[in-house]
Amino acid sequence: MADVSLRKVIKRYDDVEAVRGIDLDIADHEFIVLVGPSGCGKSTTLRMIAGLEDISDGDIMIGGDVVNDVPPKDRDIAMVFQNYALYPHMTVAENMSFGLRLKHYPKAEIKARVTEAARLLDITDLIDRKPKQLSGGQRQRVAMGRAIVRNPKVFLFDEPLSNLDAKLRVQMRIEIKKVHQKVRTTTVYVTHDQVEAMTLADRVVVMNKGRIEQIGTPNELYHKPATRFVAGFIGSPAMNFIPCRLEDAAGTLRIRLTDRIAFALPPARAARYNALPRSDKLLLGIRPEHLTESHAHLDPGVETFDTVLDVTEPMGMETLVYFGLDGTPVCGRVNPNAGAKDGAPMRLAMDLNNMHLLNEETGVVL
Amino acid sequence: MADVVVERGRVARATGARKGSGLRNALGRKSTVAFFLTLPLILLIVLLVLYPAFYSLYLATLNKAMTKFVGLGNFTFLFKRETFWMVVKQSCIFAITAVIFKALIGFIVAHFVHNIPGKKQRKWRGMLLVPWVIPPAMSTLAWLWLFDPSYSAFNYTLSFFGVGPIPWLGETFWARFSVILVNVWYGAPFFLIMYLAALKSVPDQLYEAAAIDGANWWQKIWYVTLPMMRNIIAITTLFSLIVTFANFDIVRILTSGGPLDTTHLFATWAFQVGIQSSDIPLGACVSLFMVPILAVAAIFILRDVSKRGNEA
Description:
Number of strands of chain A: 21
Number of strands of chain B: 0
Structural class of chain B: mainly alpha
Strand content of chain B: under 5%
Helix content of chain B: over 70%
Radius of gyration of chain B: 26 Å
Strand content of chain A: 25-35%
Radius of gyration of chain A: 25 Å
Oligomer: heterodimer
Number of helices of chain B: 15
Order of helices and strands of chain B: HHHHHHHHHHHHHHH
Distance between the termini of chain B: 42 Å
Number of helices of chain A: 9
Structural class of chain A: alpha+beta
Largest sheet of chain B: none
Largest sheet of chain A: 6 strands, mixed
Shape of chain B: globular
Strand order of the largest sheet of chain A: 6-7-8-3-9-10
Order of helices and strands of chain A: EEEHEEEHHHEHEHEEHHEEEHEEEEEEEE
């Protein structure tokens, strides 16, 4: 097991920079998830750690040693691929033991390791089958087994659950977490699914256009996003961004959303934003769960307003309501018993204690 | 539009159902339609393959003048002739050596071509296929000139290195070498193109997984490429073995079986015995010997393919 460090790592394809100078320190035993939209450079970064892609500039260190020019086989890593990449002509046991056999491990040890990994992943019964005879979930377990038996310094996962159906994905997500709790190997996991990122990671690295937007624990990213990209990417349904401006009225700082809707900011928020120029174009970032139905006893900092709902989506445990504020589409989450109906008026409450204020031009959370 | 046609067909079927319903049912069955659609091909095969095959079986049982039934007489006569056993030996040497080299060269060159990026690959693929698309009779004529003992380019070039004129087609060893060389030159592109297609179907991720598992380039070929290409290799080898075994034009043009019949194959010897020496029954008898030998090879290779077809 080992820590992994990336120092100003750059990857260029001809004229295009796919990864633009990444600095990242991954501690021993840590589970790091790289997350971002397609083409953000997350898979390229993982493949550079694996040694499957050359790096154009910078350094990659595994266990303190620079591995820039070390071939994949000598990096002591194991990788789980999106398409499993199991050898179709080998049985499950042969697939799992392939790496050990190449390194001429004693037969007894190979058998012991394969048996142990199969037990851990609950695939003991499948050990003599060929990959073709396995379901998607079983194949993914075998691919993980192949990684585990090697007992490598680092596990690399490249979107391992993307080919599975939604139900199986949830199940396998829990399996992966359990396995990590048992083996505690340093893990780098790539996904475009922010739910996977949030549920699995010790720390999440949000990437966009070849750069790191923010690194933090799932809670940090959710509650304290640094940029508009992170704020919009993490969380489902996504955070609402409503154009707004600050104004002073009778000694209090107010935030004006539309001509008829303006709220006084809670004292803590007012103190934080008071120094901002009033002319700045700003965005109010508010998550749907902080836009709920109004009720009799509202906490301080929670403000109400009336609107007409466009569409409602009953989800069972909650109902999503969609409406417009001066043409900006906004989503809220209300109690299913709150009586929300398509096209009906409704009084909603906005929790300004959980608001974010963003600079519209730079996208930075203020 | 299509719906209308289907509807009309249904109406026609319904009204005519009472009359001749047996024939209509037969025509309505998919298998019957399929049979009629393949009938032209079946007739062609019967005419061009089955009829000559049975006719040659019949011919092989006649005497030289084709007037008397001699049973297996021609076969027992052949078994006693030394030339026949030499032809059997030479056919096997020729076919097996040529196929091994074609497969090896095809495999190696396919790897090189596979690693050439994009548009350049298409050019190389096109150029490397040239030997295969030239009619063999024509290209073999060119080879005949290259092998000429007095004026050939080969001997001329070798003379610069102090290597004396080599009797390419005049000595048994060199003549056998030459016919095999030309056959390999002609047939390797077929292997190349088949292997190239097979290589392209191996997912890159398998090689990446193998690289991470610790495989070097040789181990990747041995544990990933070859097992993934097994079926293509088997089928290509079988097909090439049949075609090479039955080769006629290269040997006929280069050596006509000489020197002293040592480069004869079944086809060229059958031609010499049957057509040139006017012993058609004996010629038919020679050509029939190819069937059992190739059948055994086909059974072995295809049995392996169907066994493995289930696992890939």
